[in-house]
Give the backbone structure.
Amino acid sequence: MDKMVKDAIDNLGSNDDKIRLTALETILKITDDEVDWVYDVWDDLIKKLDHENSFQRNIAIMLLCNLAKSDSENRMEGMLQSILAHTRDNKFVTSRKCLQNVWKLAIVNTPARKIVVAHLEKQYESCIEGKHYNLIRQDIIYSLRQIVDHDGDGGLLTLANELVKKEKEEKYRKRYEAILKDN
């Protein structure tokens, strides 16, 4: 790991929002591609999943999802349920960040894909009673769309469309349908 990456990783723990955000943006951009230092930061990111500060949990979730493509040892398989648990985090923004990023796990690992899709489908059905359920559903449809775009899975697109049809509120259903339309 070079010095610039190490410094950015260290700055993820900063109390200064600007420093922390700049570091996160830097690392997210770098991890758009595979990296060879995934296991240098793995354990620290796993610990952050349980951090009392939701910003640190958000950072861990986003980075672990981005790093999944670099996980040659398939460690993510053992952590998948811990990450998916954050789709129902006690902080709404953390739940949304997880839902918006979890598709990255699904596109790099076939067994994970099945688990992620099943989890998203179940949460789409069960979130109706929750506050701002429409945003949760929107994020779920977004993640399913990302998987479809990557895999070209028509069956998954059909599933997503079937879920959308279950939405009773027309304004929300139209938002979800717009996500699923061809780009």
In short: Residues 59 and 181 are 30 Å apart (CA to CA).
